Fold:
Amino acid sequence: MGPFAVAVLFFLLIVSSWAAVTEDIGLRTIEMPGVVLYKTNGPLKKGQVEEAFPGHISFHFIQKAYGIDVLETQGGKRMIENSRECAVEVDSIRFGANLLGRAKSMFVERGYEHELQSFLETGVSNPDAGLRRMHWAGIEILPNQSLALHSHPNVEFAYIVEGVMHEWRLTDPDVEKKRSYEPEIVEINGKIQSKYIGPNLTMVDASETFEHNLYHEGEMFINTIGDVHQSFTKDEGVKLFVMWGDGNADVPKNQHPQNAGFLNQQSAQAW
Structure:
């Protein structure tokens, strides 16, 4: 089979994939306090991700969840302009490929490329977090809302579709990360629930170990296993497209670090 025939065959496979994604991407919308979640009907399959991962899913998910053609946004245009050459010039695939490429670079920069690679090879992130599976999700944090301080039992990478996300992030590498997570039975608003609990940070001085970051449309951030931060918004709110473990592990108030008066009172909930 000649190069032209191979290119045509690849194009037909792409078109077929695009049609399947468009038809089958069914999303659930879940309204939570201060947050709107958009979730697929199930997790990624176990096993090595497909060679074309993430393919069209990024583009179509954002379009269906938020009604936004990400390729027409300034952030999406920059993503396409900066993408590597692709065998078939399909912008929705170029967007997804560069999104993953940028995430890989960020994991490499922090020295945690093995955590992302493990997920890409197995479809699972952090066996020490139990049976949690990886999902695509849209997380819209409404204006002037704050999630709890929390840690990440699994890897995560997120793209800012619209708005601005702020965070307080624990950056001290000497603070040991919590990597092993088992569901704990807790009482919340008088109800008994099974939840993952974040680390005990009472020996940490927040005034020396946390920094403030913000992320604008078209930018990305990652979380490695055990990372701790608090996400919040101001007047703009934020819309995120995320690969995550379908929830994180809140740090109880009695386990907050010392000198942490700058942290926000939780007003939003996403898991």
Summary: The longest helix spans residues 3-24. The first strand starts at residue 27 and ends at 32. Helices lie at 3-24, 57-66, 74-81, 91-110, 113-122, 206-209. The chain has six helices and twelve strands.
